[in-house]
């Protein structure tokens, strides 16, 4: 019997980084809860992820493969997750707070007669419960919560947990799960892939974001040029995305991507709570804003109070020089 | 096209963060004079989605609102009615107080069953107070309906509804039969803002108040008594840092000084 079951995710044939982080967290917590760590891999052609899951800390990997599971669908994935849960009898189920995890977790928890906690930032064992700390009120508050029913379902924010060093020598079992594919009433028609140019937001060491204060969508071209010099990804505030200035896939914030780069550069962003919820974990935040009282300056290491239109051309030249040296 | 939209009243999420205070002992957010209660913005977008779906069938159908909350939550219902919804149901009883996502979803699902399952059930992607994003999915599960969450667009496609779901690397297009549950994200676009005349008209629209007994539940099923998730602590994170403002007579000087400081600190 496992203490913790991680619902893993694959991308491009590999285990996602967040899955490894969840397995790292599960290994840490299972030491106190008692029992092992399991990982469920659900999809088509996901067996290739089993070894990586074991190397990342899983003792048992449940592989549920079916061509009908190639794409995530609430109606087909929930029953598979339920049947793996019945086989594994975990005390705790962890999923990523991802497009999949946040959709799956509440329905899975309810079908299991239990409840879920969403978007946990910190996990610790207290008796037979896992105490989860999560952000609420757009980042203005933290709450610590426990699920009182069983199993305890928790979704976890990317990059909030540490993965174990990969250990190719670890051993574990791989169990093949018989899939009884549920008939879905909803039908996935296809996907509009966001144009993936340059560095991915969630992987970037440097993120340069623009907000409504830019005044016009054309200004994002200046940000992209700046980003090109230092290998940064370009992000945008929700206000800028809602105005149609930049694609929603590049939105940084509570309802967009949560980033935690080494350097986050906020240009003409006021720093609304919901934006800070998406970038507050950055190691260093700097801001350029003409309003000295902008909320963003409460979180910055360095700030420039000036019109970004004057600062950016100069900054571009300085960064070129810095990179050349 | 009959729709039910579940709406919640919350403290204005656009209010200045400095006004926000927590009562740690009571584990509650304190009432603050600078923060007015509003309809959850994502729920206003869900009302807008319902109105647009009804417009697409030539205005045929009834849009009902359900809200669980204290007396003041009536204002969130009234806001949706002023936007153009037809009638409201207010789950208002002391027994509902201090519940969690589970007890709220349970009560909403029973209320929806009491009204009758419509063609489409709409929710905001999450309430901008607790930021959980669970209630729509739990209601869908309890009513055994297909669901699609975090949507940027919703349109009629014959008898079905075609939606675009926001995922990490783009958008997923999904076709759902009715009845179904949909949760609306901020990418949907701005909801209409009621004018004075519509606010006056909304005052005449009916709002039915229900307690647990009216929807087939016991007081012990809901509110604090029915919770599955327990709050252990609530506090405000101490995030404020001391900002070093980069000085200079010109923008060029400031840019040069900034890059210099970033290199001093080995950030670049």
What does this entry look like structurally?
The complex is a heterodimer of chains A (325) and B (268). Chain A has 325 residues and is α/β, with parallel strands linked by helices. Chain A contains eight helices and 17 strands. In chain A, the strands form three sheets. Chain A has a nine-stranded mixed beta sheet with strand order 9-8-7-10-6-1-4-5-11, with helices on both faces. In chain A, a hairpin with a 2-residue loop joins β2 (10-11) and β3. Chain A is elongated, with a radius of gyration of 21 Å. The termini of chain A are far apart. Chain B is globular, with a radius of gyration of 22 Å. Helices cover 28% and strands 28% of the residues of chain B. In chain B, β3 (22-23) and β4 (28-29) form a beta hairpin. In chain B, α2 packs across α5 (196-204) and α3 packs across α4. With 268 residues, chain B is of the alpha/beta class. The N and C termini of chain B lie far apart (57 Å). Chain B has seven helices and 15 strands. A nine-stranded mixed beta sheet of chain B has the order 11-10-9-12-8-1-6-7-13, sandwiched between helices. In chain B, strands 2-5 form a two-stranded antiparallel sheet. β9 (141-147) of chain A pairs antiparallel with β14 of chain B.
Secondary structure: elements and pairs:
The complex is a heterodimer of chains A (325) and B (268).
Chain A: E1 2-7, E2 10-11, E3 14-15, H1 17-33, E4 36-43, H2 50-55, E5 60-65, H3 74-88, E6 92-96, H4 101-111, E7 115-126, E8 129-136, E9 141-147, E10 152-156, E11 173-176, E12 187-193, E13 206-210, H5 219-230, E14 233-236, H6 238-242, E15 263-267, H7 273-279, E16 284-289, E17 302-305, H8 308-324
Helix pairs in contact in A: 3-4, 5-8
Chain B: E1 3-6, E2 9-11, E3 22-23, E4 28-29, E5 37-39, H1 41-56, E6 63-68, H2 74-83, E7 87-91, H3 101-115, E8 120-124, H4 135-142, E9 147-157, E10 160-167, E11 170-176, E12 180-184, H5 196-204, E13 207-210, H6 223-226, E14 229-235, E15 244-245, H7 251-264
Parallel strand pairs in B: 1-6, 1-8, 6-7, 7-13, 8-12, 9-12
Antiparallel strand pairs in B: 2-5, 3-4, 9-10, 10-11
Helix pairs in contact in B: 2-5, 3-4
């Amino acid at each position: 019997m496992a203490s913790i079951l991680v619902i893993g995710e694959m991308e491009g044939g590999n285990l996602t980084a967040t899955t490894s982080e969840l397995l790292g967290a599960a290994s840490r917590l299972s030491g106190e809860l008692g029992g092992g760590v399991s990982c469920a891999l659900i999809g088509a052609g996901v067996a290739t992820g089993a070894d990586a899951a074991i190397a990342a800390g899983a003792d048992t990997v449940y592989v549920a493969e079916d061509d009908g599971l190639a794409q995530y669908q609430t109606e087909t994935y929930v029953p598979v997750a339920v049947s793996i849960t019945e086989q594994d009898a975990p005390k705790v189920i962890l999923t990523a707070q991802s497009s999949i995890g946040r959709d799956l977790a509440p329905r899975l928890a309810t079908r299991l007669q239990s409840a879920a906690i969403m978007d946990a930032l910190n996990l610790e064992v207290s008796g037979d419960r896992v105490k989860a700390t999560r952000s609420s009120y757009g980042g203005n508050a933290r709450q610590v919560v426990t699920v009182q029913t069983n199993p305890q379902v928790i979704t976890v924010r990317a990059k909030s947990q540490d993965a174990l060093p990969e250990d190719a020598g670890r051993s574990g079992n791989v169990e093949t799960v018989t899939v009884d594919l549920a008939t879905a009433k909803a039908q996935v028609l296809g996907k509009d892939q966001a144009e993936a140019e340059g560095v991915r937001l969630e992987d970037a060491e440097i993120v340069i974001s623009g907000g409504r204060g830019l005044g016009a969508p054309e200004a994002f071209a200046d940000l992209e040029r700046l980003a090109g010099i230092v290998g940064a990804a370009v992000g945008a505030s929700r206000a800028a995305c809602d105005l149609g200035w930049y694609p929603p896939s590049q939105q940084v914030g509570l309802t967009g991507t949560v980033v935690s780069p080494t350097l986050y550069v906020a240009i003409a962003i006021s720093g609304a709570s919901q934006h800070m919820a998406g970038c507050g974990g950055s190691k260093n935040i700097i801001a350029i804003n003409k309003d000295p009282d902008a909320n963003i300056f409460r979180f910055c290491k360095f700030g420039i109070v000036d019109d970004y239109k004057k600062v950016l051309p100069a900054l571009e030249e300085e960064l070129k020089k810095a990179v050349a040296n | 096209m009959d729709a039910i939209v579940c709406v919640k009243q919350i403290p204005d999420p656009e209010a200045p963060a400095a006004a926000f205070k927590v009562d740690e002992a009571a584990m509650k957010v304190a009432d603050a004079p600078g923060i007015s209660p509003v309809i959850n913005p994502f729920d206003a977008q869900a009302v807008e989605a319902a109105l647009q779906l009804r417009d697409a069938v030539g205005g045929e159908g009834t849009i009902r609102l359900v809200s669980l909350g204290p007396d003041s939550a009536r204002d969130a219902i009234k806001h949706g009615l002023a936007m153009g919804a037809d009638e409201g149901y207010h789950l208002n009883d002391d027994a509902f107080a201090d519940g969690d996502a589970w007890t709220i979803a349970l009560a909403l699902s029973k209320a929806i069953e009491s009204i009758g399952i419509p063609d489409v059930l709409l929710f905001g992607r999450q309430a901008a107070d607790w930021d959980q994003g669970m209630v729509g999915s739990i209601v869908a599960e309890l009513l055994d309906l297909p669901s699609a969450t975090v949507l940027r667009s919703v349109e009629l496609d014959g008898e079905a509804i075609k939606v675009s779901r926001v995922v990490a690397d783009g958008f997923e297009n999904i076709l759902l039969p009715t009845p179904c549950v949909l949760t609306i994200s901020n990418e949907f676009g701005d909801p209409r803002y009621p004018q004075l005349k519509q606010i006056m008209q909304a005052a005449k629209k009916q709002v039915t108040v229900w307690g647990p007994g009216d929807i087939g539940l016991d007081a012990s099923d809901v509110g604090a008594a029915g919770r599955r998730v327990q709050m252990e602590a609530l506090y405000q994170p101490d995030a404020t840092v001391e900002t070093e403002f980069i000085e200079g007579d010109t923008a060029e000087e400031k840019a040069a000084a900034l890059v210099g400081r970033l290199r001093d600190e080995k950030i670049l």
